[in-house]
Design brief:
Order of helices and strands: HH
Number of strands: 0
Number of helices: 2
Strand content: under 5%
Largest sheet: none
Helix content: over 70%
Structural class: mainly alpha
Shape: rod-shaped
Distance between the termini: 53 Å
Length: 142
């Protein structure tokens, strides 16, 4: 029983850990998406500034190339985070399923233990009733 309790605790911990990991991945994805949106706003602001001066028009294409590289890096990071999220989701589903199976097994074992106790008490009561009946029969025959 103690080993099963430890296993149950371990499965619950694993499930909670995977849920925390999912939350962390979602937060990281949100941060990267915000950075991507900030990047787009920055490009729009710089485009406006570049149109205001000749020097800006000359420097803007190199700025735009650097921002394209950064955008691609952020998108690659988003794809990687999505892949990790899917993997963690699969692991969480598996862990939840294993936890549920173990919880059902513990519940059934507990129920069987209670049923066994009831059976023992019924057998004792049946024995007492049988002994009482036999004594009454013995007394009647005397």
């Amino acid at each position: 029983m103690r080993q099963r309790d430890n296993l149950l605790r371990l499965k619950r911990f694993r499930t909670a850990e995977l849920k925390r990991q999912m939350t962390t991945l979602a937060a990281m994805s949100g941060g990267v998406e915000r950075k991507l949106a900030d990047l787009e706003e920055s490009v729009a602001r710089e485009r406006q500034r570049a149109n205001d001066s000749d020097l800006g028009r000359l420097a803007f294409p190199s700025f735009l190339r650097a921002m394209d590289v950064r955008r691609e890096n952020l998108k690659a990071t988003l794809r990687e985070l999505e892949r990790e999220r899917i993997q963690a989701e699969l692991e969480l589903d598996r862990a939840c399923e294993e936890l549920k199976v173990l919880e059902l097994a513990v519940e059934q074992e507990t129920r069987r233990g209670a049923d066994a106790g009831l059976r023992k008490s019924r057998l004792r009561l049946d024995d007492l009733a049988m002994n009482r009946h036999l004594r009454k029969q013995a007394l009647r025959q005397i």
